[in-house]
Amino acid sequence: MQNSWLFLGLGAILVFAAGCSTSPVSATGGGPGGGRGGRGGRGGGDVPVTVAMVTQKNVPVEVQVIGNVEAYSTISVKAQVGGELTNVYFHEGDFVKKGDLLFTIDPRPFQATLNQAIATVAKDEAVLGQARANLARDSANLRYQQSQANRYSELLKGGIISKDQSEQLNATADATTQAVAADKAAIESAQAELDAAKAAVDSARVQLGYTTIRSPIDGRTGNLTIKQGNVVSPNVELITITQVEPIYVTFAVPEAQLSDIKRYMAERKLEVRAQLQDEVSTQETGYLTFIDNAVDTTTGTIKLKGTFENHDRKLWPGQFVRVTLRLSTRPNAVIVPNQAIQTGQNGTFVYVVKPNRTVEVRYVTASLRVDQDMVVDKGLAPGETVVTEGQLRLAPDSRVVIRDGRGAPGAIPAGGRGGRGGRGRGEGKDATAPEGGAPQV
What are phi and psi of 32, to 5 degrees? Predict the structure, then answer.
């Protein structure tokens, strides 16, 4: 009897221990993965996401590269004569106009040379005048002597005068003939001397003109290499002037785009925009004016130039700028925010929010990027809603709750974009999507 009570007591203890070791049933239905409320995030419940509306608009087709500002022309101003630099009529860095006086070199030696050349001209003109007078005198004597010789020749035939007298007159006439020829040669020599003297005057005037140096172009002066009061030599550079109105922006594009550029350039002038590196809101507008005649084989690019009026002189030679070359406009393009596009093992895709607030994976073909948007060629239609943030916690048919850019719950946008806030911490295109058939991002 005592043993029976002992066995009953041990059985009750074993039953009680077995009951204590049994787990309670999960309130959510239990099972593997049953802790998720719905089919959303790994932590359970609907997944909060930010969404945007797929829109449609005309999109410019552009090429964006980095370019370099280049002066329209650069002139090196050099001294062409030597002497003391007596005056400088500008300050370094001044803007000058074409024809403005820049320098004066001491003109006195050149003025003296010019005066001497002018005096030589006057002397040679006098010598020429004298030679012409001698010719006139000797020509008159020759005519008289020839007439006398003719008369004496007739008298000799009549026996009135001797033969000696007639021959004497003929010899005098011959001598005068030679004198006339010498006078003509003297005139030619004097004329040549006069021409040389006049050329010397012209040369002296040119040399004197080189003592005043004027600006050959409109532009900005650079560093003055020789200061006032120094003696300069011929062919020594004094200053460099760069023309900045208009101005070039030089840039290179891949050779694959050359055919498109040539085709569009044949139709119309292509607009080029230049944006300074440190001034995002400032853009200068010009037009494509130059295509190089050869492709650079080392880089596979071709050099282009845009010409800008640059009236406000914001573009400066040597600057680096962001260049945008507009080729054409693509009408009615489908646009989504750039952060909606994800990349997986099977290609590019987006999460599309369906009317029942679940998502589906939609593979798309993206092409152009326009600021913060992407152009989608295939896979989306205007008016659809795509997820822009929160993709890491999504799987096909996940249920979502819409939040605005500040993280507060919102609604699926009925028109226009909704909530394009910054990407959350830990979310990006290089994470791995959860199981359930979603692509690897």
Answer: -65, 125
Q: Is the confidence at residue 156, as pLDDT, over 50?
A: yes
Looking at the structure, tell me whether residues 99 and 217 fall in a common domain. Answer: yes
Looking at the structure, do residues 220 and 186 belong to the same domain, yes or no? Answer: no
Taking the C-alpha atoms of residue 143 and residue 177, their distance in angstroms, rounded to an integer, is 9
Strand partners, 402: 49
Q: Read out DSSP for 392-439?
A: GG--TT-BEEEB-TTS-B----SSS-----PPPTT-STTS-PPTTTPP
Prediction pTM value: 0.60
Has residue 369 been placed in a domain? no
Confidence of residue 336 (pLDDT cuts 50, 70, 90): very high
Beta bridge partners of 288: 306
Question: Residue 148 is part of a domain; what is its CATH number?
Answer: 1.10.287.470
Number of domains in the chain: 3
Q: How far, in Å, are 85, 90, 91, 102, 110 from residue 230 at the CA level? A: 6, 16, 17, 15, 18
Q: What is the CATH number of the domain that holds 227?
A: 2.40.50.100
Could you read off the pLDDT of 261-271 as tens digits, one per residue? 999 999 899 99
CA distance 310 to 359: 52
Mean pLDDT of 172-195: 86
Domain containing residue 291: 64-71+243-331
Q: In the structure, how many helices (H) and strands (E) does the chain have?
A: 4, 20
Flag whether 373 is in a domain: no
pLDDT at 159 over 80: no
Residue 440 is given by DSSP the state P
CA distance 165 to 149: 9
Which tops the pLDDT comparison, 373 or 155?
A: 373
Question: DSSP 3-state assignment of 23?
Answer: coil
Contact 323, 306 (CB under 8 A): yes
- Check if the beta carbon of residue 238 is closer than 8 Å to that of residue 248: no
Write the single-letter amino acid at 140: A
Please say if the pLDDT value at position 187 is more than 60.
yes
Determine the Cα–Cα distance for residues 370 and 335; give it in Å rounded to an integer. Answer: 9
Judged against a pLDDT cut of 90, whether residue 75 lies above it is answered with yes
DSSP for 345-377 reads TTEEEEEEEPTTSBEEEEE-EEEEEETTEEEEE
Same-domain status, 249 and 322: yes
- Other Cβ atoms less than 10 A from the Cβ of 318: the count is 9
Sign of CA dihedral 314, 317, 320, 324: positive
The total of other beta-carbon atoms located within 10 Å of residue 438's CB is 20
Residue 410's pLDDT is: 57
How many residues can be counted in the chain? 441
